[in-house]
Specification:
The chain is mainly alpha-helical and 159 residues long. The chain is built from 7 helices and no strands.
Length: 159
C-alpha cells in the first residue's frame, strides 16, 4: 500500500494528519498533538486541512482505508456466509411455515408456530406499528398520515 501523497508531507503535516485520524478528526487537538502552538489551533487546523498537499494525502488515505474496510467486510461475508442466515433465507423459512401445514417429514406444523411465523414475517415487512409518535421535535405537531389497510378474505385451514 503506497501513500505517495502522504510521503510528500513534511513532518509536522504528517503528524497533524495522523493525530487528526487518531482523535476522531478533531483539528485543534491534532494541531496541538503535532507540535504546533495552542494559540490559534482552530485556525491552524482549518488552514492545514485546506492545504493542497494535506487535502491530497487525506483523500488518498481515507480512500485507501475505505477500500481496506470494504475488503474486510467482503472477507467476513465469505467467512460467515454458511454460518449466518441472510434476511432472505429467514423470510423464506417463515413463508414456508406460513404456507405449509406439514413439514418435510409429513408431520403437521402446529398452528401456533405458523401464526408466529406470519407475525414475524409481517413485523419484518413493517406491517405492524409498535410505536406511534404524537408530537415531533420540540413538541410540534406531526403531519397527518392516512393509512389504508387491505381486507383479506384468507382463512387458515389447519388440517
Amino acid at each position: 500500500m503506497a501513500f505517495d501523497a502522504l510521503n510528500k508531507l513534511n513532518y509536522r503535516q504528517r503528524a497533524f494528519l495522523t493525530a487528526y485520524l487518531a482523535n476522531g478528526q478533531d483539528a485543534p487537538s491534532a494541531v496541538i498533538a503535532a507540535g504546533y502552538s495552542e494559540k490559534g489551533a482552530t485556525q491552524k487546523g482549518n488552514s492545514l486541512l485546506n492545504t493542497p498537499a494535506v487535502k491530497e494525502a487525506w483523500a488518498e488515505l481515507s480512500g485507501e482505508l475505505s477500500k481496506q474496510q470494504l475488503e474486510a467486510i467482503d472477507e467476513l461475508k465469505v467467512q460467515f456466509s454458511d454460518k449466518i442466515a441472510s434476511i432472505y433465507e429467514i423470510q423464506e423459512f417463515w413463508t414456508k411455515l406460513v404456507r405449509n401445514n406439514k413439514d418435510e417429514n409429513g408431520d403437521y406444523i402446529k398452528l401456533d408456530a405458523r401464526i408466529r411465523a406470519s407475525e414475524l414475517l409481517a413485523k419484518n415487512m413493517g406491517m405492524f406499528i409498535d410505536k406511534i409518535e404524537h408530537t415531533g421535535k420540540d413538541g410540534a405537531d406531526l403531519p397527518c398520515i392516512t393509512l389504508n389497510f387491505i381486507k383479506s378474505d384468507t382463512t387458515i385451514n389447519n388440517g
